[in-house]
Design a protein that fits this description.
Largest sheet of chain A: 5 strands, antiparallel
Order of helices and strands of chain B: HHHHHEEEHHHHHHHHH
Strand order of the largest sheet of chain B: 1-3-2
CATH superfamily of the domain at 23-90 and 133-156 in chain A: SH3 Domains
CATH class of the domain at 23-90 and 133-156 in chain A: Mainly Beta
Strand content of chain A: 15-25%
Distance between the termini of chain A: 60 Å
Helix content of chain B: 55-70%
Helix content of chain A: 25-40%
Strand order of the largest sheet of chain A: 6-5-4-1-7
Oligomer: heterodimer
Radius of gyration of chain B: 24 Å
Number of strands of chain A: 9
Largest interface: A-B, 75 and 91 residues
Shape of chain B: globular
Structural class of chain A: alpha+beta
Order of helices and strands of chain A: HEEEEEEEEEHHH
Chain lengths: 166, 293
């Protein structure tokens, strides 16, 4: 194996990595979890749930579809439907083995490792060092209205029920 | 044969470099790619991820709530959270890492804080500036806009942000050992300090507040609320703010200036007429939830 051959092999690997990273038809979920909808609407019926780091294929969508939504599929979970673009990133988020609440350590790169950065570890250390009380912050998360509650609220109040699908 | 391989290598390298140019990478990154994905991504982080924003926001909210009492009223808080979700889905950022959540601070001061990621704290005093649901929507839409526009994150000093992102990237590329956690925690603590100090003491710049007002009008319109309610709420606030106060009197532009800018925008917008039945429903649920706030 000559040095030239090694150089060629290395170049091929880099080219493949660059091509993979730039693939515009793949996106990742960048929020803790997100509902996949049957229609491009925050109130559309739910067809499944995706989790942080899930890699999805972006499907062709009608030209009149809202720009703030993407039609996606994830074969491994058998899910296909619409997701708000704000829940997606073009970066690939790699979960760390053994990481339950995955964290990403990079942002603008095409590949981001999860499990590092400002994370539960840092929060735990931060809590141990000061007089900061997270009790109410944790309780706030319990206020999580359902789709039905929000839809009824909008409907009864004569508000917009499109769910952002305009 | 050797020439052929050299030519092929040159072509592939050209392809790689042109690909990387389109991804805003530099030669250093390409070399790093050969050393592993970790190094590659370590060299390229320029902003906080939604997850990092989430942990920053939790700490900011926890800090603020550590020195303030919470108005623990399930009906009022539940109502605000449904209203918040109804607004957020019509914003430019309906999904954040942990979602939008609202809590009421048990205080007469006219104040509110939007922690990064969507944790919104609003005082009883501010809620009393609203006389109906549309005006409460104006308050929440303004706070939501601070989250959408990432004003909290931008309050971190630039030098600290650079240091934080550099450290986050490096520790992402390596095992996060105890010393890394300590180093990150120190930077984290300072970053939280920057944000809390801005929110509580200095306030955002006038321009950022006006930006949030303008975006709030759009969110209200998209959701179906009357954006003119924003002006109604500011007029009450104008009367109630006390000069020298440590709340919005200190951290926000004079309501008069805000009203002037809001009026300029609304002048070009059609009038919204809410059907009487819908108006009655909104008023009834507003009274039931916030009538005694």
């Amino acid at each position: 194996m000559s040095r030239v051959s090694l150089a060629v092999a290395a170049c091929l690997m880099m080219a493949a990595a660059a091509a993979f990273a730039a693939d515009p038809s793949q996106m990742s979920v960048q929020v803790e979890q997100v509902k996949v909808r049957a229609t491009p609407s925050a109130l559309g019926s739910i067809v499944g749930t995706l989790a942080y780091g899930d890699r999805v294929t972006v499907l062709d969508q009608p030209s009149d579809a809202p720009q703030s939504w993407r039609k996606v599929s994830m074969v491994e979970k058998g899910i296909s439907g619409w997701v708000s673009l704000s829940a997606l990133t073009e970066k690939e988020i790699k979960l760390q083995a053994g990481s339950q609440n995955a964290q990403t350590g990079a942002s603008s790169g095409e590949v981001a490792l999860a499990g590092k950065g400002f994370s539960e570890d840092v929060e735990k250390q931060y809590k141990s060092e000061g007089n900061v009380d997270y009790t109410w912050v944790d309780r706030m998360k319990g206020y999580n209205p359902t789709d039905d509650q929000v839809a009824r609220f909008l409907q009864d109040g004569g508000l917009n029920t499109s769910g952002g699908a305009q | 044969m050797r020439n052929c391989i050299r030519t092929l290598s040159l072509a592939i390298l050209t392809l790689v470099f042109s690909s990387c140019a389109s991804m805003n990478l530099n030669v250093g990154n390409v070399v790093a790619l050969g050393q592993g994905v970790q190094q590659y991504q370590a060299a390229s982080q320029t902003e906080f991820t939604p997850e990092q924003e989430y942990y920053i926001g939790r700490a900011v909210a926890a800090n603020i709530l550590s020195t303030r009492k919470v108005f623990d009223n399930k009906a009022a808080t539940g109502y605000l959270n449904v209203l918040e979700r109804a607004l957020a889905i019509y914003s430019d950022r309906p999904e954040t890492f942990g979602g939008y959540h609202v809590l009421i601070m048990d205080s007469d001061e006219i104040n509110a804080f939007s922690a990064p990621g969507g944790l919104i704290l609003v005082s009883r005093g501010l809620l009393r500036c609203a006389q109906n649901e549309d005006e409460v929507a104006a308050i929440l839409a303004h706070e939501t806009s601070h989250v959408v526009l990432k004003h909290g994150l931008n309050a971190i000093k630039e030098s600290r942000k650079t240091e934080a992102l550099k450290n986050l990237a490096v520790t992402s590329a390596n095992t996060l050992g105890g010393s890394n956690v300590q180093q990150l925690t120190d930077i984290f603590k300072d970053s939280i300090g920057d944000i809390v100090n801005t929110m509580v003491n200095n306030g955002y710049s006038r321009d950022l507040e006006f930006q949030a007002d303008q975006m709030a009008l759009k969110i209200m319109r998209n959701a179906g609320y009357d954006p003119r309610a924003f002006e109604g709420m500011l007029k009450v606030m104008e009367v109630r703010l006390k000069p020298g106060g440590l709340d919005f009197a200190k951290t926000h532009p004079d309501p008069k200036d805000r009203i002037e800018k809001v009026d300029q925008t609304l002048a070009g917008w059609p009038t919204v007429t809410t059907p009487a039945k819908a108006q009655a429903v909104r008023q009834a649920r507003y009274q039931a939830a916030l009538g005694s706030v």
